[in-house]
Amino acid sequence: MRRLGVHEADAEDVCQEVFMIVHRRLAGFEGRSSVQTWIYGICIRVAADYRKRAHRRRESTHAELPDQVAPEDQHGALEDQQARALLDACVQTLDDDKRAVFVLFELEELPMTEVAEAVGCPLQTAYTRLYAARRVVEAALRRATAARRMP
């Protein structure tokens, strides 16, 4: 959920909302797609609703980097955490449609046919959104990396 723009402090509540929707609608599941794809579709819609509510409250949805310097034995873990935070920040720059496709394909590793079903668009549209999302994320990563190298 965090990758879909849900603030870490609210992730548990949003997941609970997803589970409640799944429970209520399970009897109506028609089986035209896999259960996983169906649930991802619900996650995408609930996360989008959350972002709209959070935007109205003007909450920040970006991950924060730790304020302290970690001891040497935790240096690798800190670098991993910073890399994840950087990727999350770059993903947050995407619009909702591109973010959903990027997260489901690149991070959740769903096949593109299931991604297209989950977001409710034709397969070619999903590929177009993925291509555009990759370009935006790559450019954001390049800018962030260049900014870190500058003194």
TrEMBL record:
Superkingdom per UniProt: Bacteria
Protein known as: RNA polymerase subunit sigma
Recorded GO MF terms: DNA binding; sigma factor activity
Matching Gene3D superfamilies: 1.10.1740.10, Winged helix-like DNA-binding domain superfamily/Winged helix DNA-binding domain
Keyword Transcription regulation listed: yes
Species classification: Bacteria, Pseudomonadati, Myxococcota, Polyangia, Polyangiales
Boundaries of every RNA polymerase sigma-70 region domain copy: 2-56
Domain RNA polymerase sigma factor 70 region 4 type: 86-135
Keyword Repeat (UniProt): no
Family: Belongs to the sigma-70 factor family. ECF subfamily.
Record keywords: Sigma factor, Transcription, Transcription regulation
PANTHER family hit by this protein: ECF RNA POLYMERASE SIGMA-E FACTOR (PTHR43133:SF53), RNA POLYMERASE ECF-TYPE SIGMA FACTO (PTHR43133)
Coiled-coil ranges (or none): none
Biological-process GO terms, alphabetical: DNA-templated transcription initiation
Pfam families (UniProt xref): Sigma70_r2, Sigma70_r4_2
